[in-house]
Amino acid sequence: MQNWLFILVNVAVAAFVGGITNHFAIKMLFHPREEIRIRGRRLPFTPGLIPKRKEEIAESLGQVVSDYLVTSEGLQEMIRKPLFRSKAEETVRRQLHSLAASELTLGDVALRVWSAEEWSRLKERAADAAKAFASRRAAALWSEYGLQDKPLKELIPGWSEEKRDRLSDAAAGAVLKELGDTLLSAEGQRLLKEMAAAMLDKAGGFLGTMAAIFVDEDKLVQKLTPMLIGQLEGEQVRKTIASVVSGKLEQYGEMPFAGLMEAAAGEPALDFVLRKLEETVPWSSWIERLEGVTLAELIGPGLPQLEASLPSWVDKGLRLLENGVPAAMKAVNLPSLVQEQVQKFPIERLEEVILSVSGREFRAITWLGVLLGGVIGLFQSMITLMWR
């Protein structure tokens, strides 16, 4: 055989062996995917390297991702970057403008999160919670301010003898004026006539008979009315009523507030307050009205103020997010999460991903095997020819 043909055959064979060896070596990373048994014995190199070491690869990959790729420090550093902050601020601003122009109501938003039945139950629970909170808060304030035993005068700002006298005098004047106006009214005149008739009816004997004959009730009322009005406008009557009112105010001022309320309501004061609070505050109605408020009505009027305060709120939110990253990473348990996801990942899909990323490199390795095989074949041929 001629030397050039000998060299060519050796180079071709060695190149083929090198290329096919590398090609099968790459294929054996993924194939076969299941072990092959012959007469109960496992065929060597089955399954392929990656299917066989899938769990170990998943565990190692999870550790690498958590230790070097996705770390608390890396995430915190990313959050601190000005670019991230500006993007977050811009995103929040766009959302604010979108919400400020939205005609969706709070009820519509809620129904996107919950079903109609769930939302109805949530509203009922919210109303019950508001009632319970208001009752607890009222009871706490009642206890905090000592309303059970505190005298009434301590609850009225500026309570003093001078103020009590002024209030008594004003009350006496108001009562006397109202009484005078009542006597001058048609209803008051009718009442005076009834009183005069009753007095004449009760007067028995000769005097009563003469009064019934000669006394006219209308004229009697006309004469009595100015006299009564004059007495009501007199200083002595005013002072007497003011004195009575002042005495009552002094008496009530020394009494506990709870005792006065209990006497008026006919039940324990705190129970009365809590019952009235629950009966009068329309929590369910307020929630229904709030449900009909649109996002535009809620956010639109305050949009300029919200935008002005947006940078500070974004800073606070990012600081809170940054501080919460370590705890969140610990709670997520990233190594276990990555390991679990890799174990679930199909080998076929994994092979496609790796080949799509590294297919060119794998082909280069195959041709490198051809090249190295050819070089080895050339050297081998040269050595063989030298030793002939």
Describe the structure concisely.
This protein is mainly α and 388 residues long. It has helices spanning 3-27, 49-52, 54-69, 72-80, 82-100, 106-113, 116-144, 161-184, 186-202, 205-214, 217-232, 235-254, 257-265, 269-280, 283-291, 295-299, 303-332, 334-344, 347-386, and strands at residues 37-38, 41-42. It is rod-shaped and about 165 Å long.
Number of separate strands: 2
Q: How is the main sheet built?
A: 2 strands, antiparallel
Low-confidence regions: 205-215
Output the structural class.
Answer: mainly alpha
Give the H and E element order.
Answer: HEEHHHHHHHHHHHHHHHHHH
Rg, rounded, reads 50 Å
Mean pLDDT: 79
Helix percentage range: over 70%
Separate helix tally: 19
Task: Tell me, briefly, the overall form.
Answer: rod-shaped
What's the arrangement of strands in the largest beta sheet? 1-2
- Alpha-carbon distance between the two ends: 13 Å
Beta-strand portion reads under 5%
Keywords:
2 strands; 388 residues; two-stranded antiparallel sheet; mainly alpha
Describe the fold and architecture:
This protein is mainly alpha-helical. 81% of the residues lie in helices and 1% in strands. It has helices at residues 3-27, 49-52, 54-69, 72-80, 82-100, 106-113, 116-144, 161-184, 186-202, 205-214, 217-232, 235-254, 257-265, 269-280, 283-291, 295-299, 303-332, 334-344, 347-386, and strands at residues 37-38, 41-42. The chain has a two-stranded antiparallel ribbon. A hairpin with a 2-residue loop joins strand 1 (37-38) and strand 2 (41-42). Helix 4 packs antiparallel against helix 17 and helix 9 (186-202) crosses helix 11. The longest helix has 40 residues, at 347-386. It is rod-shaped and about 165 Å long. The relative contact order is 0.16.
